[in-house]
Amino acid sequence: MATNGLGIGRTSGGIKVIAESVPGAGSSGYMVAVATGSRDETPEIYGISHLLEHVVFRETANRTSFQMSKEIEGAGGAMNAMTGREATAYYAISLKETAGRAKDLVADIVRNPLIKDSHVEMEKKIVLQEINMVENNPDSYIHDIFAGSVWKGHQLANEEGGNPESVSAMTSEDLRRYYDEKYGIPNMAVVASGSVDLDEVVSWAEENFDDMSGKRNRRKRPGKPSGNLAVREWHGDHSYAGMGFRGHAADHPDRDAIRLLWVILGSGTSSRLFQKIREEKALVYSVYSSLGQHSDSSSAGAFFSCTEKNLAETLDSVASVFREMRSDGLEEGELRRAKNLVKGANIRAYESTTDRMGKIMKDILLTGEAQTMEQRLASLERVTEEDVIRVAGEMLSPDMLNIALYTCDAESAGRIDPSHFDF
Asked: Distance (Å, rounded) from C-alpha 143 to C-alpha 137?
């Protein structure tokens, strides 16, 4: 069935299949997504989704890792995977004339991985290095600390890579058990984009994945939002911070109004945060906003780094930007500029087959439906100034402020009270 430019079907076993045929495309991309990620992990297997994603590339029943590399590169393509809080996805892209090889490779790693002891031990070493790299990249790591603040006590706070203790303790049996439980029809979706045909993709998915059973994920919803402080010590000369709030689920009617609110606050050099904190006060080198959406909630915040002596003033300045948004509303032309910024980012992203598949995959797993570019842009255009002002009043609540800090003075930072900031 074709719906608004997307071909949508199901395998006989019930796996949802979405194929986006792009006229004139010279490449074909195939992605298998599994609705399991770090939020589905218990403390004993913290980081297992990411470790498993690594291990499946080591060897399958049909190919070694080197053979996979030679095949996909010989097909003029690339192959990769990604792990998030709610999904793990495997994909390959090739020239359209070698699409069969891309499909074979994706199917092989998803359904035929050899999870050997030696593979697990080898990939543990790599993942442990990756965890260390993240902690030594404060621009990235502050987002994990922020998640720990926003989702305190809930599995959405789980860092995607896990921690050294849990990863080191995992065995091949743990990974095989997790694979058997999670990698099955109830949690799977198949996405294709480029020079692709829906019927062919459905047939391929049926042939390769319809005998994978698994159990549907049962997730605990986050509790009521509250304001929290999360502090970790960083042995550098700058402090890194995130200040933000929880929001609605990815399928909520206000999702676009929330996105535009945070674009106005912190996307680009014309944003309120950049102009006030960087241009007017010179407190930081960079300041920006970020929005993360989930199937049953979301979070958004302002992020920056500054010298230790500027930290208190910068936190106050960010709070004042939130206060002005709540009290003063929007300036003339601000919403139009934000819409055009989001529109441009979407259009540029759609020039990449990988980004196309990634957006469709997130739509399906987070909301149950996929949107075309036209639908995305039309939804943005329907947002009014009143919508943005309303969600600002609802979301920017001082009682619900979460603060994350990665700082060299953790003792002083630990005395900061989020409820102190009045806006």
From this structure: 11
Residues 237, 170 share a domain:
no
Q: What is the rounded distance in angstroms from the CA atom of residue 93 to the CA atom of residue 97?
A: 11
Tell me if 252 sits within 8 A of 297, measured CB to CB.
Answer: no
- Tell me which DSSP letter residue 4 carries: T
Is residue 91 a contact partner of residue 79, using CB atoms and an 8 Å limit? Answer: yes
* Same structural domain, 196 and 163: yes
**Angle at the Cα of 87 from the Cα atoms of 131 and 152, rounded to 5 degrees:** 65
- The DSSP bridge partners found for residue 33 are 89, 189
Please give the Cα distance from 150 to 246 (Å, whole number). Answer: 7
Do 138 and 248 sit in the same domain of this protein?
A: no
Q: CATH code at 359?
A: 3.30.830.10
Number of other CB atoms surrounding residue 333 within 10 Å? 8
Closest C-alpha to 255, from 87, 397, 383, 400: 383
Tell me which residue of 260, 265, 287 sits closest to 341, measured CA to CA: 260
- Both tokens of 318, joined, read 């960010």
Amino acid at position 84, single letter: G
- Adjacent-strand bridge partners of 293: 298
Quickly count: other Cβ atoms within 10 Å of residue 307's Cβ.
Answer: 12
For residue 3, name the pLDDT band (cuts at 50, 70, 90).
very low
Overall residue count recorded for the chain in this entry? 423
Domain span including residue 349? 229-420
pLDDT one-digit tens code per residue, 368-380: 999 888 999 999 9
